């Protein structure tokens, strides 16, 4: 997603591509360089290195151990090392760059799992516990954002741990994954798009367990699935759609329009499995309404947890890549 949103800069050109397939483009947004600098300092400490030059020449095992320790100590579901702002290539959060609508976009095949945000701390059983976790993820988050989270993502306390987990998942779905599909879609559909518009096709994997990465078992069938068994019929349909899009920028077989382009009015997505399934997996595929909450996605698009820093396009980092042709 960061490559697609990058406007390019100086000697670092924007990548040229006709089409792109994004399967659950998840990342935890960091709107400025503060957290990056903190992690960089911590990594130097763990690697016993003075600066970036020292890291370039450090022993691989030392770097691996430092990496493993930082991932181990990260917040639950948050691995510390994510795509981030880089002032010479991705100068702002991708959603904000896309909202400005001044870059060329390729044809897009976008998808996510229904429960992508299930990287959720299992101990969050109340709304206040969720707010505490938001404070950890986004230090200095304004009270207005906490009030919004409490209002829009309340965690039920009388329906059991599964209901609490699913409610919290909706929050992580929006800020880290599913809304990214909406940002890319809306940028492609802008009426004032100054470049030739390319088609957008969207899908949602609802087939249980519908967790992050589950669709990879269908992408690479019949290789052993990484998470759960797959349905052969649905896998072959899904693979045919990917191959067709790769060849023709259209997931449909020739002389077929079963999978519609994502329209600006009455938007529909391809459902891999019934979106209302609960206990028993459903392996059908059919077009259905886009259930993403546009209002909430538009709220998160401009990083309200740190609006002053985000509006500046992010601060310059303490470190830079010294050999940029690498």
Q: What does this 3D model show about the protein?
A:
The protein is an alpha/beta fold. It has twelve helices and five strands. It has helices at 2-5, 34-47, 52-56, 60-72, 94-100, 127-137, 143-152, 161-189, 216-219, 232-248, 294-301, 307-311, and strands spanning 19-23, 107-113, 200-205, 268-272, 285-289. Strands 1-2-3-4-5 form a five-stranded mixed sheet, with helices on both faces.
What tags apply to this protein structure?
single chain; 326 residues; 5-stranded mixed β-sheet; globular; disordered C terminus
Short description:
The chain has 326 residues and is α/β, with parallel strands linked by helices. Helix content is 39%, strand content 9%.
Q: Tally the beta strands.
A: 5
**Could you list the spans in which at least 5 consecutive residues all have pLDDT below 50?**
309-326
Cα-based radius of gyration, to the nearest Å: 21 Å
* Helical amount: 25-40%
Q: How much of the residues is beta strand, in percent?
A: 5-15%
* Total helical segments: 12
Query: Structural class of the secondary structure composition?
Result: alpha/beta
Q: How are the elements arranged and paired?
A:
Blueprint: H1 2-5, E1 19-23, H2 34-47, H3 52-56, H4 60-72, H5 94-100, E2 107-113, H6 127-137, H7 143-152, H8 161-189, E3 200-205, H9 216-219, H10 232-248, E4 268-272, E5 285-289, H11 294-301, H12 307-311
Parallel strand pairs: 1-2, 2-3, 3-4
Antiparallel strand pairs: 4-5
Helix pairs in contact: 2-4, 5-8, 8-11
């Amino acid at each position: 997603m960061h490559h697609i949103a990058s406007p390019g800069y100086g000697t670092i050109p924007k990548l040229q591509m006709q089409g792109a397939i994004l399967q659950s483009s998840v990342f935890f947004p960091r709107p400025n360089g503060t957290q990056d600098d903190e992690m960089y300092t911590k990594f130097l400490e763990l690697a016993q290195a003075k600066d970036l030059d020292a890291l370039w020449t450090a022993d691989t095992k030392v770097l691996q151990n430092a990496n493993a320790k930082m991932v181990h100590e990260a917040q639950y579901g948050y691995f510390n090392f994510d795509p981030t702002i880089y002032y010479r290539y991705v100068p702002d959060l991708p959603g904000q760059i896309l909202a400005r609508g001044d870059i060329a976009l390729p044809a897009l095949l976008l998808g996510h799992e229904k429960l992508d945000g299930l990287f959720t701390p299992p101990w969050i059983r109340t709304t206040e516990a969720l707010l505490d976790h938001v404070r950890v993820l986004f230090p200095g988050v304004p009270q207005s954002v906490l009030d919004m989270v409490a209002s829009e993502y309340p965690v039920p306390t009388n329906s059991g741990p599964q209901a609490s987990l699913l409610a919290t998942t909706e929050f992580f779905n929006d800020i880290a994954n599913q809304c990214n599909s909406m940002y890319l879609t809306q940028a492609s559909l802008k009426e004032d798009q100054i470049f030739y518009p390319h088609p957008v096709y969207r899908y949602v994997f609802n087939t249980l367990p519908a967790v992050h990465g589950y669709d990879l078992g269908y992408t690479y069938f019949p290789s052993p699935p990484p998470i759960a068994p797959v349905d052969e019929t649905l896998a072959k349909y899904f693979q045919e759609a990917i191959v067709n899009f790769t060849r023709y920028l259209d997931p449909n077989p020739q002389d077929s329009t079963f999978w519609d382009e994502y329209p600006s009015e009455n938007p529909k997505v391809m459902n891999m499995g019934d979106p209302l399934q609960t206990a028993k997996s459903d392996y059908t595929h059919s077009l259905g309404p886009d259930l993403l909450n546009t209002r909430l996605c538009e709220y998160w698009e401009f990083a309200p947890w740190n609006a002053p820093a985000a509006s500046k396009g992010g601060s310059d980092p303490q470190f830079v890549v010294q050999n940029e042709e690498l």
